[in-house]
């Protein structure tokens, strides 16, 4: 079963006519259910652009985006937002947790926005935090957590609405090497347990080697790494 299929994705940015940078030039990618793929490329190659298109945050100039077998290329903004909320989780280099809310509340809020009841949302938040070893941190605000703990809470938030697809942009890039190593292990554990498909951009080739396969973004196309 295919969770993500990108076909012939083209994307450029206008820098004032007639100049345009073509970032993606016919990128193709297929992610099977449960597959974890590393996305490797130099800075500026277009990794964030690709992740935003795959996650329905941005639209390509040409090409097709399918998630969970649904072709969302020409869907309305409303349909794309609904598909994103139901099927995609995002993780970034920085945690982007809401500072005035506790760890558990940061995981409850996206569930409430998605129509879950408060008791159900709270139970899921606690279960997710326990799964990443943060059962004792549910009522802590982000500022009271270490960098690695903050990032683990961000993983739980990404999984709050039980997505099919996780998109991560340098998820441990902000952490020191030893912490990055453990926290990446936590992320992989969560992904494997939930059977999620994941596309994880990283500069760290050791982390890339721990995934199922590597794709490289080269001259706007994806090639086996
Ligand atoms: P990466 O994530 O691999 O560093 P990005 O996808 O962020 O790469 O950017 C790819 C290229 O597109 C870069 O040259 C960047 O400067 C350019 N770019 C990205 N976003 C925009 C934008 N909104 N407007 C103009 N150029 C952009
Ligand atoms: P909300 O339910 O808060 O309105 P959205 O449905 O807009 O959230 O977004 C779903 C996911 O996409 C969230 O995890 C959010 O972090 C991410 N997201 C939304 N907009 C952007 C953006 N412009 N850039 C990066 N990530 C975004």
From TrEMBL:
InterPro entries: AAA+_ATPase, ABC_transporter-like_ATP-bd, ABC_transporter-like_CS, ABC_transpr_LolD-like, MacB-like_ATP-bd, P-loop_NTPase. GO terms for cellular component: plasma membrane. It comes from Roseicyclus persicicus. Pfam families: ABC_tran (PF00005). PROSITE patterns: ABC_TRANSPORTER_1 (PS00211), ABC_TRANSPORTER_2 (PS50893). GO terms for biological process: lipoprotein localization to outer membrane; protein localization to outer membrane. One of its GO terms (molecular function) is ATP hydrolysis activity. This is ABC transporter ATP-binding protein. It comes from the Bacteria. Residues 4-223 form the ABC transporter domain. Belongs to the ABC transporter superfamily. Keywords: ATP-binding, Nucleotide-binding, Transport.
